[in-house]
Amino acid sequence: MTRKFWEGGLNVEPAVAAEQNHRNLEQEESHLRRIARGGITALIAALLVVLFGASQPAQALSYGYFAGHPLYRGSEPWCTGGWTIQGTSGTFILTAGHCFGVGERVSGTAVPFGTMAYRKFNGTEGDSGLIRPDAGVTMYQIVVDPRTGQTPPGTNGRVTGKMPNYEQTNGTLVGKMGITTGRTEGTIQYRYPRNGVYVYCATYARAGGDSGGPVWRNDSQGLRAVGMHVGSIVYNGATLGCYYPIDTLLSQWGASMNFFPSARMQAPSGDLMPPSESTDFPPIVTDADGAVWSND
Fold first, then answer.
1. d(CA 123, CA 90)
2. Bridging pattern class, strands 161-162 and 70-73
3. Per-residue confidence (pLDDT) for residue 111, from 0 to 100
4. Domains, the chain
5. Residue 103 DSSP symbol
6. 3-state SS of the chain: helix, strand, coil percent to 5?
7. Measured between alpha carbons, how far is 47 from 240 in angstroms, rounded to an integer?
8. What per-residue confidence (pLDDT) applies to 62?
9. Mean pLDDT, range 266-275, rounded to an integer
10. Residue 133 and residue 112: Cα distance in Å, rounded?
11. Main-chain dihedrals φ then ψ at residue 241, nearest 5 degrees
């Protein structure tokens, strides 16, 4: 029987767990300083082994995570970090399930900051995973271009909501962040059944390493989470980037998201994405229709 990880959404502040762990570390450090003043140096070394593990990788004591940040395997750029979500088991960072194995350490700019805790990557559950952050990691629902550090045009990067699946219609313009191609934009064209779950495919540019990256939209309703990039299809001679819609991912994990209050400052009209001209869902294409899938 498959173990169900999430039992329901619990909307908690993303930094609460990290702050509590940080306070616990401070208490432990204070205790060790008292022992040191007593001159028991050997006991300090023994306690450090017990607390942190003799062979454990160094953990980031302070790290600010934004959606779109690069994810490294060791020192090698590997994938892209997605949205922060939370549920009854804590707060996690979304990425593609094919990026890391369960238990594998994940680094940001070569500094380990979390561990892949759970993933869905088989023929029926799609392709997504959850990174459990280390103590001291603060997660912000802010989206940035990992290549430039810039936020979507006309915004401060603060995400104020999510775009439901029913609004993601044929021809809707969306943006994507990825470590290889940075910020790119394109219109939704198709749906494709990937590992038993539909992805939406759009004309934005993508490449290997972009998997896990946030897909977003900035319009009159604000900067909203749309989905998570995971791969691409080649169809009718064109290559399209594909993502799992955010509502699909939240439903799969039984999770929720925190958002910033609606922005007070309205972005310049020239920076807003236009309304979709269609209310129809994008058509479905499959391998049988000639679509060819690739992970990024």
1. 26
2. unpaired
3. 83
4. 16-142 (2.40.10.10), 153-295 (2.40.10.10)
5. T
6. 15, 40, 45
7. 53
8. 80
9. 74
10. 9
11. -80, 145
pLDDT at 63 exceeding the cut of 80: yes
**Amino acid in the structure at residue 95:** T
Predicted pLDDT at 120: 96
Is residue 20 very low, low, confident or very high in pLDDT (cuts 50, 70, 90)? very low
CB atoms within 10 A of CB 279: 10
pTM of the complete model: 0.78
The residue-averaged pLDDT of 81-86 equals: 98
Residue tagged 């989470």 (tokens)? 225
Q: What is d(CA 134, CA 113) in angstroms, rounded to the nearest whole number?
A: 5
> d(Cα 169, Cα 110) in Å, to the nearest integer?
38
CA distance 246 to 209: 20
First and final C-alpha spacing in the chain: 30
Closest CA to 92 of 127, 126, 141, 59: 141
Give residue 37's Cα distance to chain centre.
Answer: 44
Nearest to 290 by CA among 233, 241, 243, 244: 233
Enumerate residues 6+ apart whose C-beta is below 8 A from 20.
none
Cβ proximity of 202 and 245 under 8 Å: no
Question: Contact 192/198 with Cβ under 8 angstroms?
Answer: yes
CB of 160 closer than 8 Å to CB of 261: yes
Closest to 108 in 3D by CA, of 82, 75, 157: 75
Q: Return the amino acid letter for 85.
A: I
